[in-house]
């Protein structure tokens, strides 16, 4: 039992497991923010444009309820809201990735410029030494 607990502790304390846990927590919080953006800001504008009181209640009735039986309806409003949620999340992730890639690119350019400012690389120095040795032999 001690070995099992030790193995579990080692597994749980690995860096990538902790990173994943942090990612899940931040992702959950991010999901709440995006859902609030969609539900509280974007959807009211869409419902104003469509004239629907509650966008999620939009439906197409296929069969009316008869004598207490349930009717059948396609609830396309909720489906459309989920599509809008997805598109906004995808857009936000796309923009964030573009920003991260741009920052990474800028950092790499700075690193290259910093290396150039420091002088020749080890490889360049070795090539120069090799060429000087060739000249001295001839």
From TrEMBL:
Parts of the chain that traverse the membrane: 21-53, 73-97
UniProt KW keywords: Cell membrane, Ion channel, Ion transport, Membrane, Transmembrane, Transmembrane helix, Transport
Membrane topology category: Multi-pass membrane protein
Molecular-function annotations in GO: mechanosensitive monoatomic ion channel activity
Keyword Transmembrane on entry: yes
Cell compartments where the protein resides: Cell membrane
InterPro entries per the UniProt record, alphabetical: Mechanosensitive_channel_CS (IPR019823), MS_channel (IPR001185), MSC/AndL (IPR037673), MscL_channel (IPR036019)
Complex formation: Homopentamer.
Protein's UniProt name: Large-conductance mechanosensitive channel
Source species: Longibaculum muris
């Amino acid at each position: 039992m001690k070995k099992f607990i030790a193995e579990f502790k080692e597994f749980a304390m690995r860096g990538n497991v902790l990173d994943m846990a942090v990612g899940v927590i931040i992702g959950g919080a991010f999901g709440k923010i995006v859902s609030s953006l969609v539900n509280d800001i974007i959807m009211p504008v869409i419902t104003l444009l469509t004239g629907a009181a509650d966008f999620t209640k939009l439906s197409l009735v296929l069969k009316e309820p008869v004598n207490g039986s349930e009717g059948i309806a396609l609830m396309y409003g909720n489906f459309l809201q989920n599509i809008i949620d997805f598109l906004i999340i995808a857009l936000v992730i796309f923009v964030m990735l573009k920003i991260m890639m741009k920052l990474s690119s800028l950092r790499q350019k700075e690193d290259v410029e910093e290396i150039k400012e420091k002088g020749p690389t080890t490889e360049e120095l070795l090539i120069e030494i090799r060429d000087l040795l060739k000249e001295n032999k001839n």
